[in-house]
Write a structure and sequence with these properties.
- The protein has 50 residues and is mostly helical.
- 94% of the residues lie in helices and 0% in strands.
- The protein contains 1 helix and no strands.
- It has one helix at 3-49.
- The longest helix is centred in the middle third of the chain and has 47 residues, at 3-49.
- The chain is rod-shaped, with a radius of gyration of 22 Å.
- The N and C termini lie far apart (72 Å).
């Protein structure tokens, strides 16, 4: 393999890891938003009850 191919492979590996990291962070953010919404709903129910 030539040096250019090694560089392209290294960039490809880094790109895959960055994309995986973005997917993981997006999933965590989505879960956090859902849980925050559930907590807000619970807080509204409690404040309405008394």
């Amino acid at each position: 393999m030539s040096q250019g191919q090694y560089v392209a492979l290294a960039y490809g590996v880094v790109l895959v890891f960055v994309l995986l990291w973005v997917v993981i962070i997006a999933a965590k953010l989505s879960r956090l938003e859902r849980e925050t919404g559930e907590l807000a709903d619970l807080a509204r129910e409690r404040s309405a009850d008394g």
